[in-house]
Amino acid sequence: MCVTPEGDNSLVLSKNCSKSRFEFTPGGDFIYTPTSLCVQPLGGRRDSQPGTKVVLHKICGREENRFQLYTGPLLNVPRQIVFGPKVSPANRPKKVALSILIVKCGSVIDSAAVLVQSVINAKSKYNIDLIALVSKEVQTCRPALKTIGFKVLEKELPLQPEEIRNPQIAREIINDGCCGMWELLKLHVWTLTEYDRVIQLDTDILFHRNFDELFEYDSTLVWTHGGLGGSERMNGGFLVVRPNPSHYDAMVEIIKSGDFRGGQGWRGKCCWVYGGRTIQGILPYYYLYEQVDAHQEVDRCKYNNMVEIDRCMTWNYNNVTSNHFTVCQKPFHCTGAAHNRLCREFQNKWWELSRDVEISLGLSPRQECPSGRYHEINWEHVPAGKVLHNPSLSTHY
């Protein structure tokens, strides 16, 4: 039996294989050669479910059209990505930083410390400054952030709801996504021009090996796809930015326009997703539709692995550079042992690094979730003068 076209765009199985003439392109299109139409899921959905039909479509080159052909076991399967140039050795970044966003205190501070310990263990050749973007409401955990090694930057929102010219979007943006408008504080990373690169991360990310190459792409934004089966075009928790104030200004102006359309997203193009009115939508719209030559995708299974799609589940731990605790539950939520092998390895590594943090700060390591409850690091008991990460004392490797 062969796949052959039937009618204008349908595909069926047939015993007549004379019309079964397809080819793969380097970009991942699966083309029916007699008509140059491309195979795509019915409806063009990025998050197609099992049982979804495929059809022929005249538009090629889109994300939902990409296919890959494998003849061996599905293990550490890479994504087909066109990589742009990296900077020359002479033009490598001189000053880099890691930034996090803190909108409330709590166990996320412990997770931020574990993230930093994972960065220390990754042995970067760069001296990485630590920045915590906070609002004025975040106060009680500032001493702990400084003990970890973060420079605390208090920032105002890039815009206020009343500046948005669409009253409906002005109301909806307040509670959109995980953090409402507060997630827009991440846009301030584009204004940190004292740095050549800034990697903006959620605190529930963990590095498992060196990630220096992320700083060396010749792009304003390096990114990965997010969750939701791929319908989240960019994940706002993993961004590598070459600061550019003009891009900051442009994105803020787009948000002020309020041109976010139901079922479509910004300017009717992108991205109708959870948090789409803020970071999860404005970044993919701006870089995929307006600054199309200023960004670089990296593989979401190698970097920012959420163990959410089948392809990423097949990766070996030793091939993953960083993971993001989303589908894999956050260790400090104490939900019990994960069923997925890769999730268990990520969670075990988190606890191992957590113990390293406490030992480095002169504390006794805690038990893992005694009686199913998480006990936060007692930051007040850290001896005076102890700091987890001091970039000025770091060693170049």
Automatic annotation (TrEMBL):
Please give the InterPro entries that the UniProt record associates with this protein: GNT1/Glycosyltrans_8, Nucleotide-diphossugar_trans
SUPFAM superfamilies per the UniProt record, alphabetical: Nucleotide-diphospho-sugar transferases (SSF53448)
Species classification? Eukaryota, Sar, Rhizaria, Cercozoa, Chlorarachniophyceae
Q: Which organism is it from?
A: Amorphochlora amoebiformis
Q: Could you tell me what this protein is called?
A: Hexosyltransferase
